[in-house]
Each structure stands twice: as C-alpha cells, then as structure tokens.
Please model this.
Amino acid sequence: SRSSIARITGMSPTSATRIVGDLQQLQLVKETTAISGGVGRKAVSLEINPGLFCCVGIDISETKLSICLQCFGGEVVGRLTCPRENDAMDGPQVVEQLYGMYRQLLADTGFDPDKVVAVGIGALGTVDVETGNVIYADLLNWANVPITRLCGERFGLPCYADNDVKCALIGEIDAGLVGPLEDTVLLSFGRGVGGAIYNSNGLVRGVSNSAGEIGHTIIDYTDGHLCSCGRRGCVAAYLTEANILEHARRLFPPAEGLDHIMEAFQAGEAWAIPQVERICGYLSVTISNTICIRNPQNIILGGKLFNNYPFLFDLAIEKYTNMRYEPLKTSTLFYRSSLKGSRTSVGGACLATDPYVQRLLRGMP
Model:
C-alpha cells in the first residue's frame, strides 16, 4: 500500500502517493485488492504490472543459440534453443538465425509482438557494454563483432549486450537463488571456464569488462596444455572435453567421451576413478583460487559439467575443503545453478528490462 511504501522508504505519505501516481500513469504499477488495516478505511494494495511489456533474452554460445521472452513481472512466456546452423557462423549469420527463432517463438506462443520492447544478449567472450561489440571470443572465432548493432537492425528494437557468464549471474540473482549479494561469484564450467562477480553495487566489471575471467588464469606455466585462447597452461585447457578424453585414453583407450567416463565412474570402474579425481582437482583449484582472490560470501557452480553430472558438485567441494586456506574455511556458501541452460537468456532479458524502465521513468517514449 502507499502507506507501507512511505513507512519502508522513510518518505512522507504525500511523496509516496505522488510517486505511485507517476508510476501508475506509466502503467508500471497498478492497484489490486484492498487490505484491511484495522480501524478505519482499508488500504489499497499495489503491485507492478507484470504483463506491461516483454523483453527478448538471447544466449550465443559456440554450439547453440537460445532465446526467451520474459515479461516485466519475470514470467518467461516462451523459450527456444537450437543448434547453430554451422560452426563457422559470423555475426550476421548468427543474428539471422536468431531472428528466425524469434519469429518462431512468437508464432508458437501467440505473444503480441507489439509488447516486445527490447533485446538483451549474452555472448561468449569479452563484450564492450558501451558499444555492444564482442571484442574477442576465441570459441566463436569472433573479433570486433558489433552484435547489438546487427541485432538492432534485424529486430528493429533497442539492443544491449554483455558477456554470457555475467548475464547468467544476473539471471541467477533475478531468480532469487542467493540471499545477501555481498559478494556473489558464478563459476561456469563447460567447454570453457568462465566467472562473474556481483556485489552490492552491481556487476564487478574491471577495466575491459573482463573481471572474473578465472578460466584464463595459468596453473601450469612450464609445459601447459594449449588453450583455445592461444596460450598454454590456462585452467580452461584442462577441463575441455577433448583434454579430459585424451587423458582418459592413456589408461583406457576405448574411452568414448564424458558420458562414458562419468557412467564408468559411477559404476565403480577402476580406470574412470582417477579421471574424475583429476577433473575435480582442477575444479577445486579454480574454486580455491577464486575464494583466495575474492573471499566471496556466495559461490554458484554451474555450466555443462555440473548441469550434466550433478554428483561433481559435492565431489568438487569436498576436494576444495581438503585444500582450502584455513582462515577462509567458513566464509563461503555454495549453491547449485538454479536456471541451468536458460540462465544466460533470462539474464539477457533482465539486462534489457532495466534500461527500458529507465527510459520510461525519464519520460522518453
């Protein structure tokens, strides 16, 4: 109610009523049912207008493209994921496939396209949030791709872009996965290794929006494996499926892939046990380094490895516990990713929602 807003914010009742009136005029807020306040007139309850508009959220990865429609109230009204049409797609080709997926999603859901107001994009690599360009993405083989300009021209809507793991962290926070946000780190382990950091002031970006790039910290500088970034010894180079499989075949040449290794481990086959121990070793080293550098309150563990093989979560934390720096032993809470494969696209939709609301509040159409 208006009186509750005044009490919670410390505003005067007159100011709260005026601001609520402005928000109602913009249709961001609407009245609902009357609340009994005891003696006297019942207070009128207020809520945001959840269906006022919708934003598109996009996830651009090296193997697939995902898109969702999320309303102002947070409801995802539809989502679609498709393999990339080919591995060597450039920016315009990716945008063309995304636009086709968007039209398909509108047709499947029957959603009114006039209510779609903006697009948010989570893309692999280093993204300049001011220009909307993907500066460098080794797994996409992209450099200086103007992804927001390309999407804006094709979709005919305002577009915003950020790194995929940063968008994923926004999506996890929007879903209410963690409590106090000072500090929260997301570590994502898939074909690559990525990280993102959030504190009470928002995302921690660094000078070039690369804060949290734990996957490209070097753990073996003497004779390290070649990473997709072109350097040797990055932690990401030891957690690719190709590297894991190469190592497994030294002991068991018939090893077929990650699924085979994980199934054999769970079946207790002797050759698979050291392979999973090795994987968990690199996972725990990454967790330990993150905690020593950042000392976060919360760590979310996600990505393909944890999503596809949930038992790795407990094994990695157990291994970390055995190597942790004792002064930090009780400082961090661990969470499993809640949104799994949809978190980046949901975060992209959230990324687009905020600037659209800000434009409304500034009185811009």
User: Anything to note?
Assistant: The chain has a mean pLDDT of 90. The chain is about 40% helix and 25% strand.
